[in-house]
Design goal:
With about 325 residues, this protein is an alpha/beta fold. About 40% of the residues lie in helices and about 15% in strands. The protein has 11 helices and 9 strands. The radius of gyration is 19 Å and the shape is globular.
């Protein structure tokens, strides 16, 4: 369960596939029809339609959120415009985010995972997410393999100043998360890096870095599936990592580490690209506040940030709903 009782849609490979699919579709339907989302829409004078399919209702919320809660418009998260919200809208945004599991992180439910994936992101994430993985390991959670998933996205906006203030000498996400992994796991020596033939850091390029003495720790920069159009997105990264492991992922348990605000959207992507195609169980957790604390440089999240990521969750879950329907055809 998430927040005050809205169940987070999950996928388990420990039950028959037909049962996992049925559970997923029921949870997705309950999520999009939940009272917190309905109450949130009301703050913008909108009432969700009744007697429509779950897919149509997701579509309705997609349009509503694009009009009122989309502050990025294609920009990076740290370059989104600030929203002009009423006090009631701010309260509703935070309350809904809390109910949907975007505020308070939940701890891992298991003591062993076959794989742990640390998701890259803005420069703070490249520090605090590896730090949480290392803390879990020290606390007795056992990992078969740990991989940090990043990309060659150049640091931009306030990231450059933040990187300098945090002691991260990096110009892109891949280099930042390499340093974050080394710091979190107290790794010595330069990693061994295998790269795509071009040796460059464009949208279509890739790299895999492994640390000496720790073959179970690696950092991956994945290529984009549309390199002429954009950089690699979360789904590209998941799919590129999972493809060579298709056999070992069957019935495996995979832990994703991210930030609580991004858990629903990123878990939806992992279910679509890792769990469903390869028969794995994916669990996604956010970094707790004590690990995310970087003093004056701690990442703040406000109502507009939560609205943006509620929109991301709506879109991610709609794609997931459609994937479960495709399986029935």
């Amino acid at each position: 369960m998430a927040g005050n009782g809205v169940a987070a849609p999950t996928w388990s490979a420990d039950v028959p596939r037909s049962e996992a699919r049925a559970r997923m579709r029921a949870a997705l339907g309950a999520w999009i029809r939940s009272e917190p989302l309905t109450a949130l829409a009301a703050e913008w004078g909108a009432a969700p339609p009744r007697d429509v399919s779950d897919d149509d209702l997701f579509g309705w919320f997609d349009k509503l959120s694009d009009k009122h809660w989309n502050f990025r418009r294609g920009a990076e998260r740290n370059q989104a415009v600030r929203a002009n919200l009423t006090p009631a809208q701010k309260r509703a945004a935070v309350a809904t985010a809390s109910a949907l599991g975007l505020v308070e992180p939940r701890p891992p439910s298991r003591r062993y995972y076959d794989y742990v994936l640390i998701l890259g992101g803005l420069v703070r994430a490249c520090l605090v997410r590896p730090a949480y993985a290392a803390k879990l390991s020290r606390s007795g959670v056992v990992f078969g393999n740990v991989t940090a998933l990043g990309g060659f996205r150049p640091l931009a906006g306030d990231e450059l100043d933040l990187a300098s203030a945090l002691g991260i000498a990096a110009g892109n996400e891949m280099d930042a998360i390499l340093l974050g992994m080394a710091r979190a796991f107290d790794l010595r020596g330069e990693p061994e890096v295998n790269r795509s033939a071009s040796g460059r850091t464009g949208n279509g390029d890739w790299a895999v870095a492994r640390f000496p003495g720790r073959p179970d720790l690696s950092v991956v920069a994945a290529p984009s599936s549309e390199p002429a159009v954009r950089r690699a997105n979360t789904a590209d990264t998941f799919g590129w990592w999972a493809g060579p492991r298709r056999q070992s992922l069957w019935k495996a348990h995979v832990l994703l580490i991210t930030t609580a605000i991004y858990v629903p959207y990123q878990e939806a992507g992992a279910i679509r690209t890792v769990a469903m195609p390869y028969g794995a169980t994916v669990e996604t957790v956010g970094v707790p506040a004590d690990i995310a604390d970087l003093g004056a440089h701690t990442q703040p999240f406000g109502p507009d940030d939560y609205l943006q990521e509620i929109r991301s969750a709506i879109r991610g879950y709609r794609d997931l709903l459609r994937d479960t329907a495709t399986e029935d055809q």
